[in-house]
Each structure stands twice: as C-alpha cells, then as structure tokens.
Amino acid sequence: MTNILMVCLGNICRSPLAEGILKSKLSKDFIVDSAGTANYHSGSAPDKRSIAVARKYGLDISKLQGRQFNVSDFDTFDLIYVMDTSNYQNVIKLARHDEDVAKVKFILNETHPGKNFEVPDPYYGGDHGFENVFQMLDEACELVAEKLL
Ligand code: 4NP
Questions:
Q1: Which residue's CA lies nearest to atom 10 of ligand 1?
Q2: Ligand 1 contact, 84 CB (< 6 A)
Q3: Whole-angstrom distance, CA of residue 138 vs CA of residue 146
Q4: pTM above threshold 0.90
Q5: 9 Cα–ligand 1 center, Å
C-alpha cells in the first residue's frame, strides 16, 4: 500500500486541499496526510478560503489540523508531493539518504512532467487564487490516483 504526504509551507492553504482532493479519489486503504515545512500553523484548521473552495466541490476539510513536516515522515510515506521549489528545498534539507530524496516530487510534475511548475501560494491573494489552486490540484491528483488504483 502506498502512503502519500502533501507538503506546502503553512499546511493551511494548499496541502490540506491536496490531501482532501486525493483522499476523495482513493479508497480508505490509502494513507493520505499533509504537513507544512513551517510550524506557524501547527494545530490550526485550514484557511477558511480553502475550506470554502473544498466545500464548493463537495469535500469537507474543516477538521484537518496543521502540523510541521518532520524527518520521520520519510519513514511513514512512500510519496511526498511538494507544491513549490521552496518546499522542495526545505524537505530535501532533512533527507538522510538518496532513498529519502527519491520520494520527494513536485505535484505539478504529474500534469507537466519534468517542468517543476509551482502551485502558487494563495495565502495573500483573493478567493480566485484558491479556485485556481483547487483546479490545478484536482487535475494533478486525478493522475496520481489513476497511477495508484
Ligand atoms: P500554504 O500557504 O503554504 O499553502 O499553507 C501559506 C499559509 C500561511 C503562510 C504562508 C503560506 N504564512 O506565512 O503564515
């Protein structure tokens, strides 16, 4: 069984959405979780704009709680999807060996292989940013799920 972790900076905007979206496409047998490279929002619920856009598409992410990525996540998870280059660098910094490094992938490389495109951080923008992020993540997670099923 494959365990999948979604990672962003704060674990309140992008990665909780990615977690909720991927969970909705996979059976309950898969472990899907999310974390932030920073600890600013540990214990917090997702941003209300992420909760709202998820709800618009029938997903409830309101009960998720922010937590910080830690080195033991390399042992728990088989695939670690990051949203942007800064997330990638922060996660890779904690890698202990090549096997850890190999688990870390840009989520948008699912839809745009090899390009290392970023899911833009919507935190300081308006609601449209969250809609845009939802659509990008939905498309990418659909391809992740197809590979795993
Ligand atoms: P996220 O967005 O990484 O998608 O959860 C952010 C949330 C909070 C902050 C930055 C990005 N912040 O600076 O508090």
A1: 10
A2: no
A3: 12
A4: yes
A5: 5
Condensed to tens digits (0 to 9), the pLDDT of residues 44-86 reads: 999 999 999 999 999 999 999 999 999 999 999 999 999 999 9
Confidence (pLDDT) at 68 = 98
Query: Which of 41, 21, 42, 40 is closest to 32 using CA atoms?
Result: 21
What residues make up the domain containing 40? 3-148
87 ligand 1 Cβ < 6 A: no
CB atoms within 10 A of CB 29: 7
8 catalytic per annotation = yes
How many residues are there in the chain? Answer: 149
How many structural domains does the chain have? 1
100 burial level (CB within 10 Å; 0-12, 13-18, 19+): middle
N-term to C-term CA, the chain? 10
Provide the CATH number for the domain around residue 112.
Answer: 3.40.50.2300
Element (H, E) at 115: none
